[in-house]
Design goal:
mainly alpha, Tetracycline Repressor, domain 2, 8 helices
Length: 164
Amino acid sequence: MIDHIFGEVGLDAGAVTALPWQQACSAYAQHMFDALSRHGNVASLLIEYTPIGPNALANRELCLSVLLDNGFSPAVAAHAYATLARYVLGFAIQRSGSPPDVDRQDQQDQQSQRDVELSAVFHQLDPSRYPATVAVADELPVPLGEEFEFGLQLILGGLESLHA
């Protein structure tokens, strides 16, 4: 079942390898996140399981090939892949909090409502006790998709500095 989901990642190897490595890694992470997010609580099954089915191996091979072909050492490529995979897994687990029978629009509506409520809480905090939180209250909570993209860019930026 898990390998079937990895088959849904849907990356075209030729198209991905033609991209700059940063875009290729970003596409890999985003497609993996999307595939895991479509299947409710499946991501939590991967906490203690390293997938080695043919689809999982093909995805891993693609990501590692991109890194190796762009001059990363084997050690850095392995660590970069593992970091990206765990990063995606962590966010997919966060997204998996909704029951699988709730449709995506209902999930988004429920999350939006929770965000509005949480934002109100941040705005009502005592600024003498929580000055930093109140100072950024207009930016909180950060939507999960935006947080995922921001963190992914931080990881890729860190890899760029290693690559240079």
